[in-house]
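User: Hello! My lab partner asked me to get a predicted holo structure for this protein. The small molecule is S-adenosylmethionine, SMILES included with the sequence. Please write out the structure tokens.
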Amino acid sequence: MDTLPFCQACENNKSWILDVLTRVFADRRQVLEIAAGTGQHACHFATNMPWLAWLPTELPENMPVLHARCAAYAGDNLLPERALDVCDEPWPVDIPDALFSANSLHIMAFSAVEKLFATLGNSAGDDVVLAVYGPFNYHGRYTSDGNARFDRWLAQQSADSAIRHFEDVDHLAADAGFELQGDYEMPANNRLLVWAKQVGK
Ligand SMILES: C[S@@+](CC[C@H](N)C(=O)[O-])C[C@H]1O[C@@H](n2cnc3c(N)ncnc32)[C@H](O)[C@@H]1O
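Assistant: Hello! Below are the structure tokens for the protein in complex with S-adenosylmethionine.
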């Protein structure tokens, strides 16, 4: 039995996410994971994409939860986890050639989403791929009744949390120099959005 911190949502679509990441991270060297939670994605993706050095990060107060699973990782391509609040100025870690975050943009305040992309705009290099997984609204509408219920539940948990509008996030990404490369449908009305900043390519 798994006694490490566990999140079912993290398990649900990990094979679908991996299928896309394997392709979009095929030529990447290092991934900075934002809001890594329990570390389930970090360990699964590091195991299955051994060419990548995977750096999981979390808010300082959630580091013990992240550390528990990462400490049990048997491979050598999981970097020591680091504390990162996307509102940090500057970020305490360098931005490598890939970033990943799951189920996070609808949890953090929209002002934090704006800061995340502002930092990418200011500090990311010229060849960076960003993959973000989670629920998104399109054209001002929920993509399902389930997402509408989820958004009501989020509002009860925190006034800061809400399903984000794809168009708003894509606008922030474009302002940061990132162009949408793919919008992949995932089970249970989630999406995997992939942007790239590839100056001069
Ligand atoms: C629903 S959990 C997702 C965790 C994991 N990625 C997953 O898919 O299970 C949302 C995470 O966002 C993190 N988070 C919230 N605000 C943040 C911020 N400003 N900077 C970095 N992480 C943040 C929380 O600590 C939390 O672990």
